[in-house]
Please model this.
Amino acid sequence: MSQYGRYKLRPHQAARLLAIAADGDEPPKPEAPDGRNSPADPSSLAPVESKPKPPAGDADSP
Amino acid sequence: MRGDNRTVMGGGDGMFHTTRWPRILGVQTQDEDGKSVLLGAIVEQYWKPAYCYLRRKGLDNEAAKDLTQGFFTEVVLGRHLVEKADPHRGRFRTFLLASLNNYVTSVGRADRAEKRAPPGKLVSLQGLDDADIPEPDPRLSPDAAFHHAWATAVLEDVLREIESQYRQAGKAVHWEVFRERVLGPILGQDEPPTLPELCAKHHIERPEQISSMIVTVKRKFRAVLRSRLRSSVESAADVDAEIHRLMQILSQSPPRSA
Model:
């Protein structure tokens, strides 16, 4: 993947991406001692730059 | 279509427009210049699904490219297909697929041998990089290949768009941590880095900041995708159903080894 490059998605990969849109934030996985799969604490998902959710199409404009 | 009155399929300028019902309606109402731009956007959005459909119909690469050109030139542009589309009668892509199927049926084998590159290459697949030509899954039916190609093209475009937005906004790190931690594993790349590893790599003080960035990009992804899908269904209430419909379509093919 390069900057603004092409993404070649296979169907199962596309389905996993769709799940982000369908289900919201994925549930946190158990946290391993080395920090993999963290954050386990849902509270840590609270965005630092939290904003009220804007209408679709204009959200979180970077 | 663009400034030089040409449409080159594949979104050569890095933009990849989504067919939207309002845009379709715009085609019915705008002046000729506006129509050309909008039709060009529709061609860019749908040539891959059409091509994949034709490949799964048994055509080889060159024949499928040729017939795809013919369909967009003769039917979509020549017969003003988009202007005949009625948003109240179903999804545009379903309408387009039915029209494509009719076109294929109407074109005889001998006729297919004729090259369909139009005068002035108004719609041209010639010269596309091989990397731009999709290879449909041979296990898919033609219809499924069409819908797969459409769904993956929309998602690929959304990824490109949010990457572009974050980079241009000077927030490349947001994109990078999302890419490394979320997108990479989905694409079957390396095991995702730990939060401490990402902190060290990107000079970020606390893991919570990484988590926050990832959530922010996920929200952006969700918003952009929903916006795209919103413009392909009749009402906002249909977006969730469209997402689940696409997941259903995409799950019709088993995962392939990387």
The helical segments of chain A are 11-23. Chain A has one helix and no strands. The interface with chain B takes residues 1, 3-22, 24-25, 34-36, 38-39, 44-50, 53-54, 56-62 of chain A (CB under 8 Å).
